[in-house]
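Appendix C: a fully annotated inverse folding record. The material below is reproduced so that readers can follow the format used throughout the book. The structure is listed first as tokens, followed by the designed sequence.
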């Protein structure tokens, strides 16, 4: 598990570099207002906030692999759209399954993120047939339960200095990181986290925004 996590961390760093490159050098992703990787809610003091504001159990120490902040100009609330992404990396030796990460990304809904996303990313040593079978199982869960999340299953280029995905879900296509981040944003605008209808969830969302200094 430790080796798998190290690979995920290396991939996340590459994705973060790619976002920076697309935004700053190639003038893409201009709607992306802010982004963070390895966002540990406990390190922000969210446990203390939870204890003071809400009765009951302390929340789990969740880490959001990638947080993307977009404008939400059609919103009746605060005109900000927060997307929480859980990333799972697979190579030939990985022990993960097609349902890996669903628990984390669904837990994110309790904290008031507008959009939820699960990325299953595969190394080049994983065969196409395995990726298709894996993504088919995960896709069936998303579709049959009508889950409000953007599910991405994609093979990742070997060159992490120039990250490209060849996706199998939500469609078979290829593109760079910015292509899929914008696709995720469009999906989140159409399919929101249904728990945002709860007053408690909206309070948690406001707390996270305040700690991240998001206006």
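Designed amino acids, in order:
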């Amino acid at each position: 598990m430790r080796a798998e996590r190290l690979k995920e961390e290396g991939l996340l760093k590459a994705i973060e570099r790619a976002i920076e490159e697309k935004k700053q050098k190639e003038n893409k992703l201009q709607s992306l207002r802010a982004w963070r990787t390895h966002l540990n809610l406990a390190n922000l003091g969210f446990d203390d906030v939870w204890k003071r504001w809400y009765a009951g159990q302390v929340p789990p120490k969740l880490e959001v692999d990638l947080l993307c902040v977009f404008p939400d100009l059609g919103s009746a609330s605060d005109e900000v759209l927060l997307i929480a992404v859980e990333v799972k990396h697979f190579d030939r030796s990985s022990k993960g399954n097609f349902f890996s990460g669903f628990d984390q990304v669904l837990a994110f809904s309790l904290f008031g993120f507008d959009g939820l996303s699960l990325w299953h990313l595969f190394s080049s040593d994983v065969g196409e047939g395995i990726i298709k079978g894996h993504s088919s199982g995960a896709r069936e869960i998303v579709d049959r339960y009508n889950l409000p999340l953007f599910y991405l299953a994609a093979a990742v280029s070997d060159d992490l200095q120039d990250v490209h995905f060849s996706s199998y879900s939500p469609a078979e296509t290829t593109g760079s990181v910015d292509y899929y981040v914008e696709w995720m944003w469009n999906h989140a605008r159409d399919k929101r986290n249904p728990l945002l209808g709860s007053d408690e969830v909206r309070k948690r969302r406001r707390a996270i925004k305040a700690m991240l200094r998001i206006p």
